[in-house]
Structure to design on (377 residues):
């Protein structure tokens, strides 16, 4: 047996002390590294240090600029995760792969939350990491009933016929409009999510002016010829949505724009009710048509301004008192901003336009943030 005071025994004791100290330092380092690699922001995980990430294959196709720009570093960004919808949710989808929202989009989300304080408001974004430090996203993340999640297309298109359509990237195959994939994906996603999970869908260019109809299964006319799903409510597994989803792979024509959007929904609605889907003349938003259990509101209910140039210009007209007058007189549920037609128009605040008056009244927190940060509306 070794002498306790022998050099060999002393070396053994010293070795154990060094090993113990190394383990303590190593554990402390790992705790520090873990705390640096991720930090919770509310219910969301932010990545502080860059991490190795792998994305589903569809991200590279739909979001090439995002994919190649962000894959090297996620430092400081908020990581979103997929979460299925509930049938009482009001949901938005953003398919442009942006890491934040514009002023109008943020206003749109808050307006829905403002008028439906007891309903979950879900914003689904195709960018899995977002810039949560942006002042507009700070506002939305601070709203009690607003949640932001990742729009994972692999989780949306899990059933045929859209499973194969998505897997083979048919939404990416467009021979004429090379940048139309986000719109194509948006049309397919809204139809599939409404079919599978139900709820209320709103486009990100639709400001809510008052609480939406409480009844289930409704859409609104965009004009005398077409029904739109920019604002829609359906119970899950509704047969109209099943018909639309089943038709998408064959109806999608990569040589033309918008073949699986409102025109497709309108055509199947008329197939369901060829005799009693009429064209209402009244401007009262309560006036509606019926098709089985589906209510079809007239154009004024969700589209009080049409997409013709004269109405579009009214959105931005200032110093004529049009905004307060319009908001005081309309009985519409929503105001559609027609993003594709108005995206180049921007307002400096402190005007009396319809757009700013709608923002001032229906998204007060976002509107205040726009003013404080000198953002354009």
């Amino acid at each position: 047996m070794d002498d306790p005071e022998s050099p060999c025994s002393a070396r053994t004791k010293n070795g154990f002390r060094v090993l113990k100290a190394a383990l303590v330092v190593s554990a402390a380092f790992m705790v520090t590294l873990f705390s640096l690699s991720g930090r919770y922001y509310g219910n969301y995980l932010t990545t502080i240090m860059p991490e190795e990430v792998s994305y589903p294959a569809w991200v590279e196709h739909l979001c090439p600029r995002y994919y190649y720009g962000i894959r090297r570093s996620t430092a400081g960004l908020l990581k979103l995760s997929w979460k299925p919808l509930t049938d009482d949710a009001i949901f938005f989808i953003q398919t442009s792969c942006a890491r934040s929202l514009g002023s109008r989009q943020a206003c749109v989300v808050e307006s829905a939350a403002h008028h439906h304080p007891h309903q979950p408001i879900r914003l689904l974004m195709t960018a899995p990491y977002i810039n949560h430090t942006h002042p507009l996203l700070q506002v939305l993340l601070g709203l009690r009933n607003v949640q932001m999640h990742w729009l994972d297309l692999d989780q949306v298109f899990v059933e045929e016929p859209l499973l194969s359509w998505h897997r083979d990237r048919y939404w990416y195959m467009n021979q004429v409009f090379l940048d139309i994939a986000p719109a194509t994906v948006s049309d397919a996603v809204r139809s599939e999510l409404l079919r599978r999970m139900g709820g209320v869908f709103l486009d990100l260019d639709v400001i809510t002016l008052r609480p939406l109809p409480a009844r289930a299964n409704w859409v609104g006319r965009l004009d005398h010829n077409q029904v739109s799903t920019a604002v829609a409510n359906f119970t899950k597994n509704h047969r109209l949505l099943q018909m639309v989803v089943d038709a998408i792979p064959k109806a999608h024509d990569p040589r033309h724009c918008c073949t699986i959007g409102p025109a497709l929904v309108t055509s199947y609605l008329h197939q369901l009710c060829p005799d009693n889907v009429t064209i209402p003349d009244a401007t009262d938003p309560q006036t509606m048509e019926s098709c089985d259990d589906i209510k079809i509101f007239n154009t004024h209910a969700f589209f009080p301004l049409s997409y013709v140039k004269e109405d579009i210009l009214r959105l931005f007209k200032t110093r004529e008192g049009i905004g307060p007058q319009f908001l005081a007189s309309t009985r519409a549920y929503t105001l559609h901003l027609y993003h594709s037609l108005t995206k180049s128009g921007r307002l400096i605040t402190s005007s009396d336009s319809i757009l700013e008056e709608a923002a001032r009244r229906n998204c007060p927190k976002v509107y205040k943030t726009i003013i404080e940060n000198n953002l354009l509306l």
Q: What stands out?
A: The longest helix spans residues 7-37. Residues 1-13, 21-37 have pLDDT under 50 and may be disordered. The first strand starts at residue 39 and ends at 41.
